[in-house]
Amino acid sequence: MMKKCMERPAVLLLLAGLLTLLSAVIFPVWVFAPERAEGSQALTVAGVSPEEALRLGERMYRDGILPSGESLQAVIKGDIAVDGKMFSCLSCHRRSGMGSYEGRVITMPINGPTLYNPLSPLGDLRRSTRERLPRFFRSGEKRSAYTDESLALAMRSGEDPGGRALHPVMPRYFLSDSDMEIMIFYLKNLSRVISPGVSDTTLYLATVITEDVSREDREAMLVPLRRTIESWGKSRQMELRAKKSPFTEERMLKGFRKMSLAVWYLKGKPESWRSQLEEYYRNGPVFALVGGITNGEWEPIHKFSEEHKIPSILPVTDLPVISDTDWYTLYFSKGLYQEGESAATYLNSAEDLPADISVVQVFRNNSRSLALSKAFQQTWEGFDRRPPENIMLAPDEVLPPDFWKRLTALHRNSIFLLWLGAEDLSAIESIAGVSDRPRAVLASASLLKQGLYSLPEAVRSFVYITYPYTLPQDEKRLQAAPEAWLRGNKIPVTDIRIQAKMYFISSLLTTPLTMMKSNYYRDYLLERIDMMEDQTYTIGVYPRLSFGPGQRYASKGCYIVQLGKGPQPELVPKSNWVIH
Q1: For the domain bounded by 202-333+476-549, which CATH number is listed?
Q2: Can you give the residue ranges of every domain in the chain?
Q3: Which of 120-129, 250-259, 286-295 bottoms out in mean pLDDT, i.e. has the lowest?
Q4: Which CATH class is domain 337-467+560-579?
Q5: Stated pTM of the model
Q6: 298 partner at 20 to 30 Å CA-CA among 330, 334, 434, 510?
């Protein structure tokens, strides 16, 4: 229950690791009922309804705020006063209560089934494995099950049920009896019931495809994803791999589930998608959404996932929801928004750029151009820069032949951000020889697409391009692994970027789903992904995919490039990977 846990001696850390990884047993589904108030038919917890108690308990657990609205108070290391907002339970034990590890620091699970059962350092470890452990691990002392009374003592005084002191950096909380009753009720119900979409044999998943996606892109996403699901169920690959490990619990094997994938097609306008999603979900609840693809905004699916608390793992979209607080959707990147951020960051770092430089954005009134212009403006103004002048074109407006010359005459020596397609920039060569041409022009590779290679050579010296992928000269080498996987599964290479993303999902899910054992809680799946190591040059689409607690955009950067010379120009990086 602290943001930064202290390092522990190596032996204790190893023991703690074994406790986390090797100790759980299969728990029954418990129902913790609040007490019935005397003379009343209503069930209450500290005088409030169970639903309200869970809400208040969650706020204490996650935000460190008491039912009164005041901050939860505690001490660490005996006498150091801390604010519960800084040292909430969530900080180390995570949303699911299943604990975490960071470096050599292990935080134990505190969900109801774990707390209210004895905890053994050896758990259900196989006999053959026990015999290979050092002697002092074979006779590890079992922790007794908590009761309401001993759990209250642990939170207030830092003693476990056997009277042993908890680590001194575990906060000792000041809680009234009623607040403690609410907190205990919340912990009893935290990660108590397996999430929807899981049976005794099967983990049910879905992927979402919108009607605006071409058949080629749809198949590029769906075929590799289906192959991943089929392979998991047929080969029981993870079960076989787990059996080879000397540190595999029986519960890890018993927790194995085959996977089933439903395809949710969304038709019509985005305003109708939500009702279609609800209908699909009523007919067949799923544990998580995986992959998925749209040419439009992912927002309707994002909101559906957020409200139903369904993980949505790495959809293919250039228009994700940008949020610092939403939890349930993990994106490959911020998409087009990320390019606008990168343009602002790059320009702000230019040493020769005047503080009052005039910036002009030209963009169309559509979701893709607007995402870029919004991101640039928000980031640029965040650097205390003068707001850009915005020129918004209608979605189908045709630019007159002299548009660029007139714009240049009105805004001499400015910076132009042209969030437009290649067809709009076909006449930009007309300003190449103008004496007061723009100091620089920035455009988006995602909007230009293959048209970026057709930019006239006369403008290449002052046109810069945001490029959010691995550089083309490195792609072929770095995409060898996903291409080999596709060939091995007899899948033709069509759109390698989309297909490589699905290849990554197949490897991404392997470790989290295996290490979850039988703890199929949706929050826990996302937390296991958060704890994964960063992936560098894994699929060749992005230079790096980074993970961490609460991080919901795996690729966090962008190159700024220019076109080289000649009819088949290379992209020449003008910046390192601009990281946000």
Answers
A1: 3.40.50.2300
A2: 10-189, 202-333+476-549, 337-467+560-579
A3: 120-129
A4: alpha beta
A5: 0.86
A6: 510
